[in-house]
Design goal:
Helix content: 25-40%
Pfam families: OTCace, OTCace_N
Organism: Arthrospiribacter ruber
Number of helices: 12
Largest sheet: 5 strands, parallel
CATH topology of the largest domain: Rossmann fold
Distance between the termini: 8 Å
Structural class: alpha/beta
Number of strands: 11
Number of domains: 2
Protein name: N-succinylornithine carbamoyltransferase
Order of helices and strands: HEHEHEEHEHHEHEHEHEHEEHH
Subunit structure: Homotrimer.
Strand content: 5-15%
Bound molecules: N~2~-(3-carboxypropanoyl)-L-ornithine, phosphoric acid mono(formamide)ester
Pathway: Amino-acid biosynthesis; L-arginine biosynthesis
Radius of gyration: 19 Å
Length: 314
């Protein structure tokens, strides 16, 4: 595995999950694997979990992590080929990424979408400029369209909480939010859940259809209570409209899950990647109750990252 940017195939996903669970029981067992190596964690957007868990994972493997909040502490980056840089941008991505590639053995990048330029966002333009010009293995810390480390942690969490032979019924439900939010977490969750063979249903108000290239193979059910019937895992997430790109087309508060929503899914566990807007996206009642797996998911981010870095180091 050179880069880690998306779901590739079930056998790779299974081996990453297995390795992550092994590291969870034996976090320091490979602490010489990355000796003398460095990973650069480059953030163009805020982060709590991804920032801390990726550093812990690297340290567990003996690598030295160096974090740069490039949006705040770096020079303003120019992304466009052939740009005449006589305005706000100071340094071209081809210069910056090449320098970073010469400093680090692995680069890890967070680059959110604009939610205004659909063509560039769908091409994962900013993230791919780092891949193109750095010349080293790149790990996605959430790009414009995917958040694979989150999804890997989510698959690990489902694996740990599911003992039965048959596939669990997994529901991805849209939830209200006050801001226009990226599609990356929802896209990736769908990509990984389908790829890992889970029975996935997606529910959302009309107008919140996701990019079909990520949801192909899932059932779409616009009636949330119908979708929730018999659910084993319910993944809660807001996203902005994809067709009317980046717009908020509903804030209907009835989509926020409370205990009442679980009458037909008594045993269902609830997942969210965090950060969560309490009592907007998800009720306190659910987040603080027995159904919630959110802290387990966040903890598993360490072992997801450790498994991925280990695989890249070979
Ligand atoms: N990395 C996890 C989620 C990041 C991002 N959330 C946010 O931007 C929340 C912002 C807010 O609540 O104001 C998202 O959903 O893609
Ligand atoms: N879930 C997640 O990626 O959290 P952060 O944005 O805090 O890294």
């Amino acid at each position: 595995m050179k880069h880690f940017t998306q779901f590739e195939n079930k056998s790779l996903a299974d081996s990453l999950i297995e390795k992550a669970l092994f590291y969870k029981s034996n976090p320091s067992i490979d602490n010489a694997l990355g000796e003398g190596k460095r990973i650069g964690c480059i953030f163009l957007n805020p982060s709590l979990r991804t920032r801390a868990s990726t550093q812990i994972a690297a340290i567990n493997l003996g690598l030295e992590p160096i974090v740069m909040n490039m949006d705040k502490e770096g020079w303003a980056l120019e992304m466009k080929e052939g740009a005449i840089m006589n305005k706000g941008t100071v340094e071209h991505i081809k210069d910056a990424a090449a320098v970073l590639g010469s400093y680090f053995d692995i680069l890890a990048i967070r680059a959110f979408p604009s939610l205004t330029n659909k063509i560039e966002d769908l091409a994962d333009f900013t993230f791919n400029q780092f891949v193109k010009y750095s010349g080293v293995p790149v790990i996605s810390l959430e790009s414009a369209i995917r958040h694979p480390l989150q999804s890997l942690a989510d698959m690990i969490t489902i694996e740990e909480n599911w003992a039965k032979k048959e596939s669990p019924k997994v529901v991805l439900t849209w939830a209200p939010h006050i801001k226009a939010i990226p599609h990356a977490v929802a896209n990736s969750f769908a990509e990984w859940a389908i790829g890992c063979g889970h029975d996935l249903t997606i529910t959302h108000p009309q107008g919140y259809e996701l990019d079909e290239s990520f949801t192909h193979g899932a059932k779409i059910e616009l009636n949330q209570s119908k979708a929730l019937e018999g659910a084993d895992f319910v993944y809660v997430k807001n996203w902005s409209a994809f067709n009317d790109y980046g717009k908020i087309v509903s804030t209907d508060p009835s989509w926020m899950l409370t205990e009442k929503h679980f009458e037909q899914a008594k045993e269902a566990k609830v997942m969210h990647c965090l950060p969560v807007r309490r009592n907007v996206e998800l009720s306190d009642e659910i987040l603080d109750g027995k159904r919630s797996l959110v802290q387990e998911q966040a903890k598993n981010r360490i072992y997801a990252a450790q498994s991925v870095i280990s695989k890249i180091l070979g």
